[in-house]
Amino acid sequence: MTTATENTATGAPGEGPSLRTASMHTRTLPGWFPPVLLVACAALVSGALFALGSFHPASAAVLTALLYLIAVVVVSAVVENGRKATDRLVTGVVYCCFVLAMVPLVSLLSTVVINGIRRFDLYFLSVSMNGVIPSMDAGGVYHAIVGTLVITGIATAISVPVGLLTAIYVVEYGRGRLKAAITFFVDVMTGIPSIVAGLFVVALWIMIFGPGQTNGLAGAISLSVLMIPVVVRSSEEMLRLVPADLREASYALGVPKWLTIVKVVLPTAVAGLTTGIMLALARVIGETAPLILTAGTSSTRINANPAEGQMMSLPVFIYQQVRAMGSSGDAGVFSEERAWAAALTLILVVMLLFLAARLVSRFFSPKLGR
Question: Where are the transmembrane segments (predicted)?
Fold first, then answer.
């Protein structure tokens, strides 16, 4: 009887009085209000700056963001409540930080694309600099692409097994002082400057083969020194995210530990492991200093043999062309165009590698049934 009376009083059969009271006393700004307010703030700030004769995109964006945050908080506090106003303030700050972080990335990509697209064509990608002098409007980056793929491929082949096995030991087997020592040295190696890795390999190569022996294999080893600690740390974190229940369920079925790692732990973490490996690869694919010391800078021919003489790479090619930009006449102009086009090529190579990694993680990660 009481329930029926309350339902009748609220005017909605089956709806409790508390829900009706909350809906009556809670007001919410419409969904279109924040974007409309942002546009109005941008128009107001731009008009004021134009009137003062001091318009600049950066200053206009900053003032628009500040005005929008103040306006949306005041309006939300008046129309809604203090908690909602705080939520809108934090949401606006997060969006502003995101846009601020995207500005240098968009600026970098747009600059490289605008300046590099002028020479970026099939000819540039399919020929080398063999026989090309700086004043010639010719030559391409094919030999540097081959060198980059060979050097980073060997570095990846060295670093991934070593780094992944090290992470498996630290997470699954490591105990006591040995585990602490491995973790400590991995952390130390993570902060090693790239030039130091190059000098280490140069000293090692001089001890084994004598002075002046620079080749792609030495460059790959110098990159692997930088790549291994990144693979270890990222793989270690991904393996720790695998739920312990999966391991315990496998052990309960009588599966040995090594087979549990191979069949359960690694397939579960394959997406994160692939991402970590790609981050490590992106960390080293643009390194210049160690390759200048170990792989050389004077190769202009196509060389796919890492043990046979010097080998050019995209970062070193860009470095060479930038150095030649100070030349007088057409040589400086052509060098600048080749440098920007090579930078665009390097970005595209990294993007293709990340796309391949996403496909690997998509097709090889375990499928979760419902």
Answer: 32-52, 58-80, 92-117, 144-170, 182-208, 214-232, 264-285, 339-360
Cα–Cα nearest to 88, from 45, 38, 40, 43: 38
Q: How far apart are CA 278 and CA 358, in angstroms?
A: 9
Banded pLDDT at 367 (limits 50, 70, 90) = low
Cα-based distances in Å from 349 to 28, 159, 324? 48, 20, 24
Q: Which two tokens stand for residue 295?
A: 């792989």
Positive/negative CA dihedral, 268, 225, 108, 344: negative
Please report which confidence band the pLDDT of residue 344 belongs to, taking 50, 70 and 90 as the band edges.
very high
Distance of alpha carbon 220 from alpha carbon 230, whole angstroms = 16
| Structure tokens that stand for 353 in this block | 């590698």
Which residue, 323, 324, 292, is CA-closest to 310?
292
Averaged pLDDT of the chain: 84
Q: For the segment 82-114, what is each residue's pLDDT rounded down to a tens digit?
A: 888 899 899 889 988 888 888 888 888 999 999
The answer on pLDDT for 19 being more than 70 is no
Using an 8 Å Cβ cutoff, are 251 and 327 in contact? Answer: no
Is the separation of the CB atoms in 218 and 290 below 8 Å? no
Whether the CB-CB separation of 49 and 56 falls below 8 Å is answered with yes
The CATH code of the domain at 129-364 is 1.10.3720.10
Q: Please give the pLDDT value at position 365.
A: 67
Other beta carbons within 10 angstroms of residue 72's beta carbon come to 21
Token pair of 116 as six digits: 């590099």
What gap in Å lies between CA 231 and CA 20, rounded to an integer? 56
Q: How many other CB atoms are found less than 10 A from the CB of residue 200?
A: 17
Q: What stretch(es) of the chain map to CATH 1.10.3720.10? A: 129-364
pLDDT tens for each residue of 171-214: 988 888 888 999 999 988 888 888 888 888 888 888 888 777 78
Q: Are 265 and 249 in contact (CB under 8 A)?
A: no
